Amino acid sequence: RGEIRFENVRFGYDADRPILNGIDLVVAPGSKLAIVGPSGAGKSTIARLLFRFYDVTGGRILVDGQDIAKARQETLRAAIGIVPQDTVLFNDTIGYNIAYGREGASEAEIREAAKGAAIHSFIESLSEGYATRVGERGLKLSGGEKQRVAVARALLKDPPILILDEATSALDSRTEAEIQATLERAEQGRTTIVIAHRLSTIVDADEIVVLDHGRIAERGSHAALLEQG
Ligand code: ADP
Ligand code: ADP
């Protein structure tokens, strides 16, 4: 479970301005693909299409052989966890924030996800636990704690696919290293797509693609790409 295939995928937010110009990708179950490239290249757009925030304008995206345009949205989203760069939390409880988008998650699932994100103990130490309100009118969480809530949200329902969209790039280097370690554990046994802008952060990827102006400019292993410079 967790095979991803992009076949000649084309997309533009506006009809007259193409953003992705024919993307072909195959990510084998359990493997890790890294997408690098300059800002504006279309990296996050790839993640948004996979999660069906938008529909492709040409080509198709298959998950486990099924065209996602024909899948039930709920089924697709339960199979994919996304961690964005900046997580904005709702003025509600920590439990609500972890379960956001996954209505019907059980308390046991929420706790498991929080454990996977290494934030369960912190939450348990709060006097109101998972019922603690966060955000402007509640407990202020640090940037790292917010990202851990996002990781827990992504891990809910134990998805076979994980997308990390510059998940740690807004953090200070120490917090980044801590959350990176948590993410490395979370990646085990899942198909992972990591979006990054530096080659140095993705040494363990099975394949790296360099995206430029909505096209794949280079692809290969980390070593091969470093050699080319
Ligand atoms: P990257 O992640 O590589 O920085 P993005 O995928 O975020 O690039 O964006 C690719 C291009 O699409 C950029 O030119 C950006 O301005 C544009 N873009 C992103 N989101 C939207 C949107 N919601 N509406 C219109 N254009 C967008
Ligand atoms: P960005 O464009 O910065 O990546 P989004 O606004 O697309 O952020 O999503 C923010 C967060 O909300 C992400 O963690 C995403 O996984 C989550 N999210 C949004 N909608 C859903 C949904 N329907 N199901 C699960 N998670 C969702």
UniProtKB/TrEMBL annotation:
The terms under GO molecular function for this entry are: ABC-type transporter activity; ATP binding; ATP hydrolysis activity
Upper lineage is: Bacteria, Pseudomonadati, Pseudomonadota, Alphaproteobacteria, Sphingomonadales
Would the keyword tRNA-binding be found if you checked this record's keyword annotation? no
Q: Which UniProt keywords apply?
A: ATP-binding, Membrane, Nucleotide-binding, Transmembrane, Transmembrane helix, Transport
> Does Flavoprotein appear among the keywords?
no
The organism sits in which domain of life? Bacteria
- Occurrences of domain ABC transporter (ranges): 4-229
Localization recorded for this chain is: Cell membrane
Q: What is this protein called?
A: ABC transporter ATP-binding protein/permease
Source organism (scientific name): Parasphingopyxis marina
Return the GO cellular component terms, semicolon-separated.
plasma membrane
